[in-house]
Amino acid sequence: MKRILLGNMAALAAAMGVGILVAGCAGRTEPLAAAPPSPIAAPAVVLPAEVRERMDSVVEAGIADGRMPGAVLLVGAGDQVAYLNSYGNRSLEPNVPMTPDTVFDLASVSKVVGTATAAMLLIEDGKMTLETRVADLIPDFSAGDKGNVTIRDLMTHTSGLKAYENWQTAEAIRGDGEKSDALIRRIASLDKSYQTGERTVYSCLNFLTLARVNEIVAGESMESLLSRRVWKPLGMKDTSYIPRPDMIARWAPTFKGALPASRTPASTHDPLAFYYGSSTQHCPGNAGLFSTAPDLAQWCRMIANEGEVDGVRIFKPETIRLWTSVQAHVPAHSANNPEGGNPIKRALGFQVSRDMHPDGPSESWINHTGYTGTYFFIDKSKKSFVLLLANAVYSQDPPQMGPPRTGVARALVRYQYGSDSPEE
Length: 424
Description:
Elements: E1 2-4, H1 6-16, E2 21-23, E3 29-31, H2 49-64, E4 70-77, E5 80-92, E6 95-97, E7 104-105, H3 110-124, H4 151-155, H5 167-174, H6 179-189, H7 204-218, H8 222-231, H9 245-248, H10 271-276, E8 290-291, H11 293-304, E9 308-309, E10 312-313, H12 317-324, E11 328-331, E12 343-346, E13 351-352, E14 365-369, E15 375-379, E16 384-389, H13 402-417
Antiparallel strand pairs: 1-5, 2-3, 4-5, 4-16, 5-6, 7-8, 9-10, 11-12, 13-14, 14-15, 15-16
Helix pairs in contact: 2-13, 3-7, 3-8, 5-6
């Protein structure tokens, strides 16, 4: 286990080649040197030892239970990084220790960090709205009674599209064309599996479609748009759909042992995102983004601070409020619950967390998970967040990450609101 606290943050930052902020008088911070926004900022607030130890025990138990080979935990509080720790290994064959700069396949966390972020840039720019109809941009999408589906429907998972699709159905119609185009054509041809707006069905197809809409409206790939407008301004040096060789060298593998046929170390785990592929022209919207905990901390800080980090403004505050506010509250249906359960709240891409504390503003808690083992939880009212990144699918497929994710989020909530948070 490698703890990163105030005393050795400078050494870590130097090793990673990034600038830092150092604590000054009366809790103020002063820049060490002129530099782009730092992926790792020295904590102005250090979590109490009992909170750190509680989170450590949750993660270590997950490793001991075989839920994951290792993990990186990063906690932000008061708009600063308060705790950064790495645990276990990123690979067991051979043993390679987990490090804070490990690069993770974000899986469905890509939906919000990548695709929803790009969509909100275009909405803020006035190039589309939440009521823009998908069929007005992808005419074939009007098939199957989908002509009324809007950007809002895609982002809240209330469109009518089913949860997933077999990539072979796209390959069967591809011909000589691109795989990405074939998959979009296949999704566009589908009938609704339910009436738009009557329920929520969490669907990768919604965000594959949204990614193509983003690129049509922007006139450039999501890689280009996000790199130019978000990642570079925030100093997110290790976030990309097309990872560099030095990123691949720090990879947390998602397959144990020999890679499946046609896969490379840089392959995204999700089958549809892998089939779709990432290029300078098109990027998948449901998965396919790669990043590190320090990079994602910059994005979480931007969300928690209503669009601005270290004087760099990415979004207007009103855009962040729209993006993170409840936009749908309807029954959720899934393969495990086809009849639908209690209504759940969704923002634009985000899941709005269920009540975690009687004294907390529940609609302030937003999160998202990724199949590979990735997770973030943001408390907007406290400007705080937790990142737990793991390559859990390396150890178990399907992964079982519920207890570690819930445990670290509840530890933060208990710290901020008191000890009345229910235990799990």
